[in-house]
Amino acid sequence: MKQLVIAEKPSVARDIARVLKCKQKTNTYIEGDSYIVTWALGHLVTLADPEEYGAQYKTWDINTLPMLPKEWKLVVIKQTSHQYRAIKELLCRKDISTVIIATDAGREGELVARWILEKSGNRKPILRLWISSVTDKAIRDGFAHLKSGKEYEPLYHAAAARAQSDWVVGINATRALTCKYNAQLSCGRVQTPTLAMIASREEEIKKFTPQPYYGMKALAKGVSFTWVESHTNAARTMDRTYIQKLYEHAGNYLTVTEVHKKAKKSFSPALYDLTALQREANLKFGFSAKETLNIMQRLYENHKVLTYPRTDSRYLTSDMTSTLKERLHACAAGPYRRIAGRLSMQEIKANKSFVDNSKVSDHHAIIPTEQFVQLEHMTNEERKIYDMVVRRFLAVLSPACTYEETSVKGQLDIQGQTDKAVFTAKGQHILSLGWREVYDTDAADLEEEEENSSISSQSLPSVQEGERLLLSSLTVTEGKTKPPAYFTEGTLIAAMENPVKYLEQKNKTLARTLDKTGGLGTVATRADIIEKLLSSFLMEKKGNELHITSKGKQLLSLVPEDLKSPKLTAQWELRLQAIAEGKESDRHFMREIEGYTLSLIQEIKSASGTFRHDNLTRTKCPNCGKYMLEVNGKHGRMLVCQDRECGYRETLSRLTNARCPVCHKKMELVGKAEGQRFVCSCGYKEKLSSFQERKKKEGKSATKKDVSAYLKKQKKEAQTPINNAFADALSKLKL
Q1: Average pLDDT of the chain, as a whole number
Q2: Which Pfam family, any one of them, does this sequence belong to (predicted)?
Q3: Which of these, 375, 479, 527, 593, has the minimum number of CB atoms within 10 Å of its CB?
């Protein structure tokens, strides 16, 4: 008898099959003596659309709401139905005794496999493979410690309850809003509060009034001193008259009153979880949250050099400490060779700063695996993300940075006043770089460093208490307070993780709940939520900033208050976690969701709001004759019919990979048929036909694939014997 292993993706299935010595390959599975390894392609089975529950739901009618299925139906996703049928056939084979679920170790991964098994009517025993990386060692260890599928049934119930509750609330509320206001309006318990956060930030920026502030700088003995208010220690004041008076009556000497020297340490920032990695990658490289996740997934699945990416923990478990040296050996290549090699020769002291079992739920922090890395096989984007993770891993294992901080306080005589102006200066002298050596000169730019650990570049000369320093200059400084910054994808991801400040009522219990459950959505879904808000035109990008659209603002004015607050998600996630732990019934939870949905639909039906399209054009839809809307899609501008039932759309322009010959920026392609032309933001314009002709004359440049193939060919030729075929032919000639 054989065991059937179901992985989530083909790449993971191939790795498992290799370790299990399965060699007989087909298009849908790989078979061996004891195991058959097959795979899903993400979700193969999903919840049925409303139309499957009755003919009355085929048309969108507010009078048919709410839709509350008594028995949930599962349907096979058409695009990947061939793979589902293949798995079902394998499950029916008489020589299969057991099913091993090897999908991603998490709530959603559990759902992927369980829905396949439920839809196919599986009755065979289930085992569970639970691993955080797909290296050969991790796979072997995982199969040596398989768990019973029954242990993970509560996790499956929680996953199904999450999907069903989102279906009930999301589909009912979306249909109700769309029917009532005849506009494509979608909402949900995660996407709507996220949109509300963007609106709240924009309102805060709009209402912000800059306030001027003033201060003073003094230069003496080559040291820059900053004025501080003697009572509050603040380095600036809003009172211009006061600071001007100090400046006009200041003496020429600054008397040193205090000199303090103190040895200090700064410790490495914590290991990455997915949110921290997405935030920093967006800040450093402009990667979107979805882009970072996709790169991480490739490094995890294809290259197998990093651990499971969809984690919300920044800590490791104690049982992992024995593997750290092996991981150091594996990543000791290229720029990491020297430091990784040195750390692997030293004793690694695990401490609470990065090893804490209580702070790891499903998955530990993102770190390198035991798989030896081949940097030359990575794309430029993959190298950047890998570099971030490895350097953080090396930094955490390195000793603290030690430095001596010197603080100097001085007083400046003010003529006609008994009070004296107080000035301070600080300087640091690094004794040991410690973890900062990992980052070289970039250490001071780390976003996550605490303020008290940043090392100033100012070097202080030797000064003594009581010493009088002649002023070289004294200047009044001024500035204005700044509003909060617009959200970027990186900062929005961080806000979704910790949305407590966006609760209208500062409820400590809810705040604790949001903190415990990880905020809005999960690390695995936040990137998709942002993509959905962009693709449905509820928000848009201006450069790297995220702005709410008019459509988004109107939606927030029409949607029930409950759906705009993170409070709902906090309550749901706490309940789902209880279900996953076996402490609560999923059926009881769903009954409450149904009651909530009834009240939600009633509130939408009785509302008195209106929706107005403010992006209406004078172009009529060729299908129905109604005026069309101009919207900014993710890849360009398009016209969309205002009648949601018509659904006609037409592209006006799209961003291409064609580069402007003047400024080298990406150009937009506008127009139709023969009239198509490229347009650049710098003002350059070129007909498509002229562009194509120019490219023909310039000749096709070599792609990365061409270069790689050429280098491989050169390497192969370098390794072949000198006596090649031509030489052999000459040697056989009898002269």
Answers
A1: 87
A2: Toprim
A3: 479
